[in-house]
Amino acid sequence: MFDDCISKIADILSSQSASFEAGAPYFADPHYKAIPFDVSRFCKFAPKNERSGSGSTLCFVDGGNLDIVSAPNFSIQFLRVASVAFKEGKRKPLALPQRIESLVIVTHSSDMGDFEVKYMPVDEKQRLFLPQDFSISKRLVSQGDEELAPRPIVAAGGAARKFAEWLYGARIIRDCLTKGDVFVRDGTLQVGIEGEERFASQAYGAADAKGVAFAGVAKTSTLVTTTGFPLTASVQMLAKKHGIGGAWYYGPIAENKNPKHLGGIFVGKFFGGSRYAFRFEIHDSARQDVGAIFGELAENSRDLSFPGYPYGLIAADKTARVEMGERAALEARIKMRLSRIDGIRECLAATDAHRIISGL
Fold this sequence. Notes:
The chain is an alpha+beta fold. It has two domains: 39-322, archaeoglobus fulgidus dsm 4304 fold (2-Layer Sandwich), CATH 3.30.2170; 326-358.
C-alpha cells in the first residue's frame, strides 16, 4: 500500500537525479539576468591571518512572532527580536538590549481597506527600538516576497516583525559596530512587503556610514535552475563534479537590477565537512569584500550543533524564538482579561471550533 507508493515516488526522483544536468540559474523576474555556470567562479577564502577583515565583530539579528489570540477582526501577537555578537570566536556583549519584546495588536481600519498595527513593548524603554505604529494595505505583500503571502489578519504580524528586525539592526550598526565589522540578518536582502523598503534603507544607510558590511544568510532557498533542480544543490553537484572540496563560495548568481533587492546573490558552503550549502547575500556597498566576509562567516560555522551554518544565526534564532509554552501562558492571561469585555467572547468563537474539534 503506502510502501508501494513510496517506492514509486523514490524511483521517479532517483531517475531525475541520475539524469542531473545543472542547466543555468533561473529567474522569472526580468530584474535578474542569470549568469551561466562557470567552474572558474568558485572561490576559496583566505586563511584568517591573511584576511584584512580578520578580528571583525560579527553581529547577527533574527526575529520571531507568534499569534496568541485572534479573531476575524483582530490579532494579538507576541514579537521578539534578538541579537548576538562574536569577536575572535567569543561572545561579545553589545551596549544595547540583546532582545526586544512587544505585543502587537492588528485590527481593521475604519474603511476596511488597511490593517492597523500597533506595538505594545513589554518594557516601555524598548519603544526606541521599535517602529512607529503603522497601517498596511490588506494586499500585505508585493510580488517577489518569498516569506509572506496575502493571508488573513494574522499575517500582518509578520510585517511588524520584519520592520522591527530592520530598525533594530540599524540601531545596532549605528551604536555598536565599527568599520570592518559584519552585520548578518537571517534571510535575504530582498524587500517585498509594503513599507519595508523604508526600514531596510535605514539599516543600509547606517552600514554605509559606519563602513560595516551588510549580509544575509537564508536558511532555505526556493531558487531553481533551468532544468528544475534546486540552485544550491546544483552548485554543490557542480563543485563535486569538478573536485572542489572544503569551504567555498560561488557567485554572484545573476546580475541584479531589482531596486528592491540591493545585494549580490551567492551560494556558500561554509564548512567543508557539511552537506549543506546556503544562499547568502552581500549588500552592494560591500561586494568587493565578499571573500573576507565569507571567511568570517565560515569561521563562525563550525559549531557541532549544525556544522556549516553560522552559529551566530543559530544563537539569534534561539534567543528570538517564541515557544509554544510562552504562547499558552500569554493566551490564558489575555483571554482572561478579554473575556470581561462584552462581545469579545463571541468574536473569538468565530474561529474557535477547529481548535476545539482538533483537541477531541
